[in-house]
Design goal:
This protein is mainly beta and 331 residues long. Helices cover 9% and strands 59% of the residues. The chain has a single domain, classed as Beta Barrel (Porin).
Length: 331
């Protein structure tokens, strides 16, 4: 009950913002991710569960035609075990310097996997590969420049703390730098290259690279990506000689105005360290398959029925088999 009261309190606060914004240049947004899941995995400790995995509360304000700001709170689970903790996810100012140049500063939304999310389309149900496997954070403190090089080519360059929005800058003060280069073809195809690098205290760099090809036209969306992280267990845990890599492929087909079917396949693997027999991440390495159906009930309300199967490379671990009903509620 305390968890629900906590979310309702924040919701009421943002309703107040909405009343205020109706007479100003502001806009309030609310988004909630709900699900029911049934676990068919052998010896699963919890067979059934209702969950609210995430709730986002945001406010945007347009200062003038070229400058705007926004604040977003992310309410979700933290590493210490609390199911509902409010984190400041976004607190950024966007400055449109020229028609082809925009600068963002503050706690900003990261562009690492934003483009893939638009092709995948079901983040409320399951994150994209880099996000799910902690190759990067969806927001961080820093500065980002979006540069439109031509009608087809977009570039963004950034400098970030590198720890994500749930962590403050560490004592070392190392900065992550990188960027995306995106090319959008006329026939619905797109291609993207991603790179970032961050020094560590042990005199090596944690490096991320990503390659993506997408297709979106009429009723079909297709995405294929390959990602690699060198010298890191996660984006905020540099570890020399530890690497993670894998690919993700997904396809969605619209059946009608409100109905879509989709399929996704992920494969995650890690390297074998010197002196070891097994890959260092063998307890998580494996292959994921998701089949699903999405129904848009009305504007701001989506339902998603999906089945997930995860086969671990370590045969001593029971493979996961789960059915989910996910919902996204937007106000």
């Amino acid at each position: 009950m305390k968890k629900i009261k906590f979310i309702l309190t924040i919701f009421i606060i943002f309703i107040g913002f909405e009343i205020y914004s109706q007479q100003n240049k502001g806009k309030v947004s609310t988004r909630v991710y709900w699900n029911f899941n049934k676990d068919f995995t052998k010896d699963a400790p919890r067979k059934n569960a209702f969950e609210i995995k995430r709730a986002y509360f945001g406010y945007e304000y347009r200062i003038n035609d070229n400058i705007s700001s926004k604040v977003t709170f992310d309410v979700g689970k933290n590493s210490s075990g609390s199911d509902y903790t409010a984190f400041l996810k976004i607190a950024q100012l966007d400055w449109k310097i020229k028609n082809n140049l925009k600068l963002s500063i503050g706690m900003i939304g990261n562009k690492q996997f934003k483009f893939q999310e638009s092709i995948w389309g079901y983040r409320y149900m399951y994150k994209t590969f880099q996000d799910e496997n902690k190759f990067g954070s969806s927001a961080d403190l820093g500065v980002n420049a979006e540069i439109k090089l031509s009608d087809k080519i977009n570039l963004n360059l950034f400098a970030l703390n590198g720890e994500g929005y749930k962590n403050v800058q560490d004592d070392n003060g190392f900065i992550k730098i990188g960027g995306n280069l995106i090319y959008e073809f006329d026939n619905g195809f797109s291609a993207k290259i991603y790179y970032d690098s961050q020094p560590s205290i042990e005199n090596f760099n944690l490096v991320n690279t990503g390659y993506f090809i997408g297709y979106e036209k009429e009723k079909t969306r297709i995405g294929l990506e390959y990602n690699e992280m060198l010298n890191g267990k996660t984006y905020k845990d540099p570890s020399k000689d530890h690497s993670l890599s894998g690919f993700s492929g997904y396809i969605s087909q619209t059946l009608s105005k409100n109905a879509t079917i989709f399929f996704r396949y992920d494969s995650l693997g890690s390297n074998i360290l010197s002196g070891s027999l097994d890959a260092w991440n063998s307890g998580k390495d494996g292959n994921l398959m998701i089949w699903g159906f999405e129904h848009v009930v009305t504007k701001g309300f989506k339902l998603n029925l999906n089945y997930r199967n995860y086969n671990y490379n370590d045969t001593s671990i029971n493979n996961k088999s789960m059915v989910f009903i996910n919902a996204e509620i937007k106000i």
